[in-house]
């Protein structure tokens, strides 16, 4: 039996309530002596800044695990009207990136419990978190891991893209 590429995307995604699947996947990678990198976010409108950040995070280890906020979590964090794309769509777009190995959806406001469950070797956040609390950092450090902040690609953010869309929505469309 052959599986489609479509099926492959779905095998990279773990939904809330599938914690046993998380433990099983992580145990397998630990057995294979893989260096696990973890990051998280909403990834509402995937853009070049996200792709650059995730690719560089993946370069830090053997396996990139992305914690993805559920729709409820995004709404609590970002406010009414967010997310623009639902959690299944956001997870599938991330799964299409070859350097993203596993996507785990979580319903809390921070991934602290998920970081504790995974115990990554490296916890990565953008440098916009450089002087802020990074959820799970204490756990990772206590297990001998590293917490790394990566510079973000300037000029790219979902909020800025949304502002430009709203601003330009009132302008007439011009063909180039």
Task: Summarize the entry for a quick read.
By secondary structure, this protein is an alpha/beta fold. The protein has a single domain (14-168), classed as Rossmann fold (3-Layer(aba) Sandwich). 41% of the residues lie in helices and 17% in strands.
List keywords for this structure.
single chain; 176 residues; 6 strands; 41% helix
How would you describe what is shown here?
Helices cover 41% and strands 17% of the residues. With 176 residues, it is of the alpha/beta class. A 6-stranded parallel sheet has the order 1-4-3-2-5-6, with helices on both faces. The mean pLDDT is 89.
Instruction: Look up the CATH topology.
Output: Rossmann fold
| Strand portion | 15-25%
CATH superfamily: HUPs
The gross shape turns out to be: globular
Record field, number of beta strands: 6
Indicate the percent of residues in helices: 40-55%
- End-to-end separation in angstroms reads 48 Å
Write down the Rg.
Answer: 17 Å
Overall mean pLDDT stands at 89
* Spatial strand order of the main sheet: 1-4-3-2-5-6
**Uncertain stretches:** none
* Count of distinct structural domains: 1
The CATH architecture is 3-Layer(aba) Sandwich
Provide the structure class: alpha/beta
Instruction: Supply the CATH class.
Output: Alpha Beta
Helix-strand sequence:
HEHEHEHHEHEHEH
The largest pleated sheet is described as:
6 strands, parallel
Helix count, DSSP H or I runs of 4 or more residues: 8
List the helices and strands and how they pair.
Blueprint: H1 5-11, E1 13-14, H2 19-31, E2 36-41, H3 48-58, E3 63-69, H4 71-78, H5 87-95, E4 102-106, H6 112-118, E5 122-126, H7 137-142, E6 146-150, H8 158-168
Parallel strand pairs: 1-4, 2-3, 2-5, 3-4, 5-6
């Amino acid at each position: 039996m052959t599986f489609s590429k479509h099926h492959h995307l779905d095998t990279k995604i773990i939904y809330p309530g599938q914690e046993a699947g998380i433990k099983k996947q992580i145990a397998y990678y630990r057995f294979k002596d893989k260096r696990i990198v973890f990051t998280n976010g909403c990834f509402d409108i995937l853009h070049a800044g996200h792709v650059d950040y995730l690719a560089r995070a993946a370069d830090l280890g053997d396996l990139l695990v992305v914690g993805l906020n559920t729709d409820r979590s995004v709404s609590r964090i970002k406010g009414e009207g967010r997310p623009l794309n639902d959690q299944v769509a956001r997870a599938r777009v991330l799964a299409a990136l070859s350097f993203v190995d596993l996507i785990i959806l979580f319903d809390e406001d921070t991934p602290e419990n998920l970081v504790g469950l995974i115990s990554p070797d490296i916890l990565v956040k953008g440098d916009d978190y450089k002087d802020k609390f990074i959820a799970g950092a204490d756990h990772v450090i206590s297990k001998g891991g590293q917490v790394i902040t990566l510079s973000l690609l300037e000029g790219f953010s979902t909020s800025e893209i949304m502002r430009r869309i709203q601003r330009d929505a009132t302008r007439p469309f011009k063909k180039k």
